[in-house]
């Protein structure tokens, strides 16, 4: 069994889509639009086979996202090496994204950083 895809709602799905295209090598499918409901979505595919659906609908809510809340908290991307973790973290920082932690080796042995992406979604970058 495998996870088929993960989905997230976004106020601005194009900005979120473009973030994953630019920094994580995603490939975007075409915009799906339901004219009756106003629902819109993009499926993003990654070279590993993982997929992310970025969705929007007119009646969605957007409560404040605390850093320690229940539910899904981050997406983690393995980039292959500590050097690549460092380089991508530096690139995101230089482009104005907030680095929440790292790069560092965690207590359980992961080399990672955590960055706040568009719409305050946490992205973990690991080896």
Which properties best describe this structure?
127 residues; 2,3-Dihydroxybiphenyl 1,2-Dioxygenase, domain 1; 2 domains; 5-stranded mixed beta sheet; 2 helices
Protein model, in words:
The chain folds into 2 domains: 6-56, Roll (2,3-Dihydroxybiphenyl 1,2-Dioxygenase, domain 1); 74-126, 2,3-Dihydroxybiphenyl 1,2-Dioxygenase, domain 1. 20% of the residues lie in helices and 35% in strands. The chain has 2 helices and 9 strands, in the order βαβββββαβββ. The chain has helices at 13-24, 82-94; strands at 6-9, 27-28, 32-33, 40-45, 51-56, 74-78, 98-105, 111-116, 122-126. Strands 1, 2, 3, 4 and 5 form a 5-stranded mixed sheet that branches. A 4-stranded mixed sheet has the order 6-9-8-7. Strand 7 and strand 8 form a beta hairpin. It is globular.
